Amino acid sequence: MMPRISVIVPVYQAExxxxxCVDSVKQQTFQDxxxxxxxxxxxxxxxxxxxxxxxxxxRVRIIHNVVNQRLPESLNIGFRTxxxxxxxxxxxxxxxxxxxxARMVEExxxxxxxxxxxxxxYYIDAKGNITGKAPGYDEYYMLSEDLIGACFLYRxxxxxxxxxxxxxxxxxxxxxxW
Length: 178
Description:
Blueprint: E1 5-11, H1 18-26, E2 33-39, H2 46-56, E3 60-64, H3 70-81, E4 86-89, H4 100-110, E5 116-118, E6 122-124, E7 130-133, H5 139-145, E8 152-155, H6 156-162, H7 173-177
Parallel strand pairs: 1-2, 1-4, 2-3
Antiparallel strand pairs: 4-8, 5-8, 6-7
């Protein structure tokens, strides 16, 4: 059975942050997801940590890049294998609040003309303490400041129409894509 949501997590040297990120996906109130970890040639414990999660939960899959591909191409590699109706990606230093996926799926399910949703997000420190809140979505600032942030969900049709992330747009792949 195909999952409703595919979450891609590209990682490189993520041993310290990956567990909290994966745990935040596993703790979602909405559980119909797959998590695809794209390991971009990490030399630390990242591959072993990812393998432990995959061993304990069949919804977690790992792709190991043979050559370092960098972020945009690692995203493309993950999305090429994604099965979900809805797509998202996040970084190893991000965490989802428990209802994040449920609320975004509900919005997309109830608004068929809406291709994508984004949610509020908080900034946290290394200990997970909230240090601030990102500004809310504003259409005017969207084009100049990428105010979509790290919590978003879009329909597979967006990928089908727009295509993949541009591999030459390292660290600005999301600006380019949105």
